[in-house]
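Exam prep: given the inputs below (a chain plus GLP), describe the expected output before reading on.
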Amino acid sequence: MFSIFPNPQAIAENLSTLLAKKIRSNPTTILGLATGSTMEPIYARLVQKIQQDNIDMSQIKTFNLDEYIGLPPEHPQSYYQFMHQHLFQAAGIRPEQVTLPSGMCTDIEEECVSYSEKIRAAGGLDIQLLGIGTNGHIGFNEPGTSFDSLTHVIQLSENTRLDNGRFFENQDEVPTHAITMGIQDITNAKEIVLVATGSHKAEIIAQLYASDIDEQLPASVLKQHPRINIFIDDAAAALLPVQAKKIV
Ligand code: GLP
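Solution:
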């Protein structure tokens, strides 16, 4: 389940190859996408491969995990902006191919219900990419979120607001709430790849390894998924026991 790579670039190489292969063999692949700094080198390498190898991206569809409530799409820290900057624009993925939850809708309950429904109606996610929060969140599903949850509004924990504060000019600007795919939307994906890099992720990765399947550690739900890969670099693997380590 845990594959350990020497550095984030090696993960980007491996994962972008896997994604490129998938898209080539099925040009209508439905991708579940994540944001966060962990994803940046992966998207950068994927964009290079798409451009070099002329991969047809015109029929894929994408669904993003989450969005901050109260940030309009044009806000520099919205996940809409992140995706356009790091992937969609350079990969030639058109607006009609992408779906992100809206953090600015007037009827948030309706937005939640219809977001999960859109994923189902599209045929479900072929592959979902995930990062992990230092408290074990996936998407923005904070500890304690029900494993049965569909898309919902969540109050961000102080831990998450502090972690993500580095992207904002000051801590007060970090939104307090987000809209996120639920855990069930995520685990319904046919295949899942969770990525964690850096020494600041070592503790949560060791906890994830040792943990039972427990709603207090949202990522632990992945242990019961039939097709889960957890890609980590040496720094994030630092606190894993030797027997957990499969070096790639
Ligand atoms: C945010 C996102 C998550 C992401 C996490 C880790 O909270 N909602 O989807 O996994 O950050 O981000 P980073 O990759 O920057 O450590």
